[in-house]
Amino acid sequence: MTTTEAVRPLLPVIEPNDGHPYVAGSRCKACGHTYVGTRDVCAKCTARDAMEHVQLAETGKVWAWTVVHRSFPGVATPFVDVIVDLDDGAHIKGTLVDVEPDAVTPDMPVRMVFREVIPAGADKPYLTYLFVPAQGAAA
Amino acid sequence: MSDVYVVGIDMIRFGRFPDRTVPGLAAEAALMALDDAGLSIRDMQALYCGNLGQANGMVGQRMLAEIGQTGIPVVNVANACATGATAFRDAWIAIKAGLYDTVLAVGVEQMGKGLLGGTGGGPSPEGLVGSYTMPAMFAQIGIEHARKYGTTFEQFAKVSVKNHHHSTLNPKSMYRKETPLEEVMGAEMIAYPNTKLMCSVNVDGSAAAVLMAEDKVRRLGLMDRAVRIRASEMSSNPFAERQMAMPDFSAATRAAAKSAYERAGIGPDEVNLVELHDCFATAELVHYENLGLCADGEAGRLIDEGVTALGGKVPVNVSGGLLSKGHPLGATGIANIYEVATHLRGKAGARQVEGARIGLTHVVGGGPGMGTACAIHVLEKA
From what superkingdom does this record's organism come (chain A) (predicted)? Predict the structure, then answer.
């Protein structure tokens, strides 16, 4: 019996979860802060053993952004680098696609989609999350 | 505890020296600082040497191999863009602690061209999970300021016009060229709103300072060239909710500034000139507010009204700043102190801030997902 190798996540915080991918997060039961990624201690309130594993929200709003025109060699530009405030209170960095760069506005609603993409310099696809405008975009 | 003074300080002219070595560049600045103090390497009781690119390479010891191996303790320091200022502060601490009365601090860097940053091993998320370049990080900090206060691309660009103008008056600056507003705004866009002329220059450089305890300054009769260190404060990034997504340089700067003003017993309105960390044009405006030079939301007005230009109420980066003088990471912190000390001594020539009595230096560094190191010094004419 043969198995095909699953597409690997681009970052450790991306959980493939048998075809239902999500971004892993942690919520502090003591102070309520939600983090991207799995962690044991709260940087905000310093509580230990108060972290619960959560699936991060897939919708949020753009806090800050930039249009990157010059990047490292081999990386296609321009692209839109966004800081998104997720609806569960986590803050995450990502790339906003399916949008005209000049059309990005403060608090623009966005949602997370998962796609298999070949990173610059790599020879095979990886599973990553991307952001798209919340309305009218194809997943 | 007696006060600590700078009695010798200098820097090489920043530039690109691919045929030189890191210890060689450090040695040149060290000897210049010793000459400025009228002292010898034999008078130094300890060395704090700041460098990032060869942080595991014992740069301090290799520098002493070029200028005199006296067997003094050497501490090699690495702390992002605060590296040089951290070495300087370590020297200050050592004297404050009473261990030594005469200590040498050096900062040095040899850099390639191009973008800093990167994400280590494995497939690169660059472009797929935002950008890990420094210009993008600081572009977002500018956009954050714009969304809060309406700051414009033009106001950010004016920072570069100002600092490039200042650098035409500084013979130690990498570039000495006027850049009119239309040229800054029309330059290659790197990460909106920072164009290429709004990004600091990667250069090679070194700077060094001789620090001395007050009683020895008096004993040696060096008070006429001495600059008093009124405050030497550092901070790291306190918790900020977006910091893992978007490095936060403001909270650390505000914390160190508060400590520095308290330690010096002064307010921001008593500062006559500032050298702050203008690694990108967007950063300078944000730091006006972080350092208390104006109220939150007023930075755009400050640059519009020329308050921070030479001749204004509180000139900022009269050296040309990192934007034009250049930013050799490990050297920058001591080079900023050199600039302020030179004004306090009244020796800054065409760019002299008239009547300067108190100056402040600020460096802050870090990177995506790493954290922040900030150092602030308040210096006073002795």
Answer: Bacteria
